[in-house]
Design brief:
mainly beta; about 220 residues; single chain; globular; 6-stranded parallel beta sheet; 9-stranded mixed beta sheet
Length: about 220
Amino acid sequence: MPDYYVHESSYIDEGATIGAGTKIWHFSHVMSGAAIGERCSFGQNCVVSPGVVIGTNVKVQNNVSIYEGTIIEDDVFLGPSCVLTNVTNPRSQVLRKALYETTLLKRGCSIGANATVVCGITIGRYAFVAAGAVVARDVPDYALMVGVPARQKGWMSRHGHLLKTSDAEGVMVCPESGLRYKEEAGCLRCLDLDEETPLPPEMAIGKEFYDTIKAKSGE
């Protein structure tokens, strides 16, 4: 028995790789050569094409097609009906499979519902693409991207909060986590956690809930 869940209405082609704890719901199709990590979730009517690489703890909502050439790192969120492309100038009569472009979604970024990501670009770590936005160029880490075409409207924390007024030293604080951030030379960095370090458990599920679990377990 596989150590992942697939709804009976979905298809997993031979040659696809799926990690432990991943769940694939109704009417979805994972094609041969796709590689999906552990603890991912795919909603209804999703397609994962050959050659796609998906990390751990990725959340894919309904009606998302992930085409060949896409690389998705850990902890990425793809909102309902968002669009990922792989050819800049598609024509039905012209075969361009050899020209598929690489689109990289880096750790922790979020793509909003109905947003479009044009191929060949990189979405930075913990960046936040708003619903309906059209992104056609690289996005910095933690950037909030809004509109058509998408433009940066600020910085977002790891917990998805708009970072507002900085203090005298230029430090901005996330209202949910208390993590501190600072912009330098047009780049935002977290002062308390390395960008490649996963969130501690108490920050991932909420401190009060975490403390409750610890109390019940007797720790």
